[in-house]
Specification:
This protein is of the alpha/beta class. 32% of the residues lie in helices and 23% in strands. The chain has ten helices and 13 strands.
């Protein structure tokens, strides 16, 4: 099993195990409120950061938020299935639906929040045109993000993929590699650390940000804002419309959060609402 990194726990509390929120009626009297503890798994940046931002707003709605941080893409989904988490926030729909049949069967997207454009980064060159023949290129090793990385390289004219491979292309699906790139497939979280050892790496936006890289400024190439890879909040199937999930949606898709995203990341994270 991959190591679990628990960094942040926001407002721990004992609460009733129900999804229920409350507010005030028209006469101003508080209705009965069942306090809710809601546990959500997230990768650190920007997901956990956004959740920490809205924790006080959720508290005002009767929801005590606990954020558990992960640095891998497997455990957050298995933890929702097991009931250890109420939800997670780290992935896009192609990854959720294209990685594990169990995930497709048992998990569902509750709503989308933002796009983290994937970028090509290098410590050795300043532009794509400087990448030499035979260069070592690192990409994510999970099928969806690996295919996404290869599609980005293809969009820049660096390789050609077999069209039948679709979004889950692998280096085996490259039908034209005119620069004789040598590809290595690594855990997505390890890609920023690989930069001293490769000529370039294609890195997910969240891991780039966590490593101090700004995709909008530092990337040699970046996905456009029309990317289909919207990051989503995921729950067990059937829980999409639970009151706590809907309250989380209302607050996470608020003008406050959109303004924070725009000011903090300036194009490296793009709100979709």
């Amino acid at each position: 099993m991959k190591k679990l990194f628990i960094v942040t726990a926001v407002i721990l509390a004992v609460s009733l195990p129900v999804f229920a929120v409350g507010n005030k009626d028209k006469g101003g009297d508080a209705q009965t409120v069942n306090a809710v503890s809601f546990t959500i798994g997230a990768t650190p940046v920007p997901h956990a950061e956004l959740l920490n931002l809205i924790a006080p707003d959720l508290k005002a709605e009767g929801i005590t938020l606990k954020v558990v941080e992960y640095n891998d893409y497997i455990q957050p989904n298995t933890a929702v299935i097991s009931g250890e988490l109420d939800a997670n926030f780290f992935q896009h729909l192609p990854y959720l639906n294209g990685t594990s049949p169990e995930w497709t069967e048992k998990l569902a997207s509750a709503f989308g929040v933002h796009i983290e454009p994937m970028g090509v980064f290098s410590r050795k060159v300043k532009s794509l045109t400087e990448i030499q023949d035979g260069a070592a290129i690192a990409i994510p090793n999970d099928p969806t993000n690996g295919g996404r990385a290869l599609l980005l390289l293809q969009s820049k004219g660096l390789i050609t993929l077999d069209p039948s491979a679709g979004i889950q292309a692998t280096p085996l699906n490259i039908i034209d590699n005119p620069y004789n790139f040598k590809f290595s497939e690594l855990e997505a979280a390890q890609l920023p650390r690989s930069l001293p050892d490769v000529d370039a790496a294609v890195i997910n936006g969240n891991y780039a940000l966590a490593a101090g890289l700004n995709p909008a400024k530092d990337a040699l190439a970046i996905e456009g804002a029309d990317s289909p890879y919207v990051n989503i909040v995921v729950v067990k199937k059937g829980n999409e419309n639970n009151p706590a999930v809907q309250t989380l949606k209302k607050i996470l898709l608020s003008p406050k959060v959109k303004e924070y995203i725009n000011q903090k990341w300036n194009g490296s994270v793009v709100a979709v609402f």
